[in-house]
């Protein structure tokens, strides 16, 4: 597949009198292929928003190379602007305009046929409220209107920053179906989101950023298989047996999390390793089931490790080896 977004060695430093120097991006890399829904994940302050602004030509990088739709950014940003749609940060609206008026105004400004207005309102589920003033909309409805604005010109690349913000579970599901349909129609979608369960269901691939650096990337399945260790849920007949099992497994160097009526054992690839340790203590399980590790677990593992590693380097004395 051809690359729609290519980021290599991206750097960005912010300087201010009040806050001093802050390294927002420190050699960051990312690749997004055509037709994908690509999840862009990172904690607050990780450099995610800065990266999106660089991709859109809104912020100039301090170093590195960025190509969008095969063109260098920011030099080619005016030329490719019509092929890129975006919802970044909080959208602004004219509160006394209706959704239909808002989109029609954008059509006229961008030389898009007005027939497109009804199409995108249907697409985002606002057809029945198309003539109502935006000030009467809920936060979730405003988010759907913002997405409608972003896809109005039918872009080749769609960049969405937290599009499910304010949506109820039904709205989140509708947004997920919409993004999948857009990708299936040939559009490439870059999705920044904190709803990691949705990302795992929806996205074809992900990039995880922490502290300005890439800490994970690839297909969702590959990222999970590379970084996730198997967990097991273990139950025994009584609380006393459960406590004895926890001691035995911990003594065998297994990682244990004790819950009310069960143990969660991690770092073990085969169930037989658990049953063998317990059988030697005359303890027998009543239930032993795999507990798959999800994207949220991997995200926390990678971002926590990245921050901890940076702190260790910062604390290493000059001349010492970390």
Automatic annotation (TrEMBL):
It comes from the Bacteria. InterPro entries: AAA+_ATPase, ABC_transporter-like_ATP-bd, ABC_transporter-like_CS, P-loop_NTPase. SUPFAM superfamilies: P-loop containing nucleoside triphosphate hydrolases. The keyword Ubl conjugation does not apply. Pfam families: ABC_tran (PF00005). Belongs to the ABC transporter superfamily. This is ABC transporter ATP-binding protein. The lineage of its organism: Bacteria, Bacillati, Actinomycetota, Actinomycetes, Micromonosporales.
């Amino acid at each position: 597949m051809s690359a729609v977004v290519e980021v290599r060695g991206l750097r960005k430093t912010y300087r201010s009198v009040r806050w001093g120097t802050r390294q927002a991006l420190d050699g960051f890399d990312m690749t997004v292929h055509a037709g994908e829904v690509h999840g862009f994940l990172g904690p607050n302050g990780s450099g995610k928003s800065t990266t999106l602004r660089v991709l859109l030509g809104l912020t100039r990088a301090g170093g590195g190379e960025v190509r969008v739709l095969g063109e260098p950014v920011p030099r080619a940003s005016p030329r490719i602007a019509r092929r890129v749609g975006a919802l970044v940060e909080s959208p602004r609206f004219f509160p006394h305009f209706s959704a239909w008026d808002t989109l029609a105004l954008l059509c006229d400004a961008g030389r898009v046929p007005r027939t497109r207005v009804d199409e995108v309102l249907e697409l985002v589920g606002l057809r029945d409220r198309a003539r109502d003033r935006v000030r009467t909309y809920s936060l979730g409805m405003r988010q759907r209107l913002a997405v409608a604005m972003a896809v109005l010109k039918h872009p080749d690349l769609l960049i969405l920053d937290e599009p499910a913000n304010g949506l109820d579970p039904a709205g989140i599901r509708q947004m997920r179906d919409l993004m999948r349909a857009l990708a299936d129609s040939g559009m490439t979608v870059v999705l920044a989101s904190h709803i990691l369960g949705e990302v795992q269901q929806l996205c074809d691939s992900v990039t995880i950023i922490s502290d300005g650096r890439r800490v994970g990337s690839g297909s969702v399945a590959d990222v999970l298989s590379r970084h996730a260790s198997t967990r097991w849920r273990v139950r025994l007949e009584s609380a006393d047996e459960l406590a004895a099992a926890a001691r035995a497994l911990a003594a065998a160097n297994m990682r244990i999390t004790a819950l009310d009526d069960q143990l969660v054992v991690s770092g073990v690839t085969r169930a037989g390793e658990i049953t063998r340790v317990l059988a030697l203590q005359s303890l027998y399980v009543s239930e032993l089931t795999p507990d798959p590790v999800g994207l949220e677990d991997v995200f926390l593992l990678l971002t926590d490790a990245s921050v901890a590693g940076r702190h260790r380097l910062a604390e290493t004395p000059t001349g010492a080896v970390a």
